[in-house]
Design a protein that fits this description.
Helices cover 56% and strands 17% of the residues. By secondary structure, the chain is of the alpha+beta class.
């Protein structure tokens, strides 16, 4: 099975949906932030491993604690995933903290600040 095949894309989407539901409803670890979402899932073509990118709304410390809680609960999450999704192999899940949303917000702020300074520069050039 190729990495970008239709089957692999469907499996990625189904695993992402199931992981989101499991984390939201089944995992009771107090370290896991209630505002945790699964942003992307990449299941290997051989269905042995899975990378789950997790986004946490909150600070960096909250993200690290949530990641530690998810890594601790990974075997439990994998067993629930095996019951919900009928795959030949249930993938071993590796959780990765996704910081792309925070990076995007930071870049947008920097662009907005740069654009706000443009009229000031034009006024300075006209005066000179």
């Amino acid at each position: 099975m190729r990495k970008n095949s239709v089957k692999n894309v469907r499996i990625n989407a189904e695993v992402q949906r199931a992981l989101s539901e499991i984390i939201r409803t089944e995992v009771k670890d107090p370290r896991i932030d209630p505002l945790t979402s699964v942003t992307l899932v990449e299941v290997a073509p051989d269905l042995k491993t899975c990378k789950a990118y997790i986004s946490v709304l909150g600070g960096e410390e909250s993200g690290k604690e949530t990641l530690a809680g998810l890594k601790n609960a990974a075997p439990f999450i994998r067993s629930l995933l095996a019951r919900r999704i009928n795959l030949r192999n249930t993938p071993e899940i590796r959780f990765i903290l996704d910081t792309s949303i925070a990076y995007g917000v930071r870049m947008t702020k920097l662009i907005d600040d740069a654009v706000a300074q443009i009229p000031e520069r034009e006024e300075e050039d006209e005066e000179a």
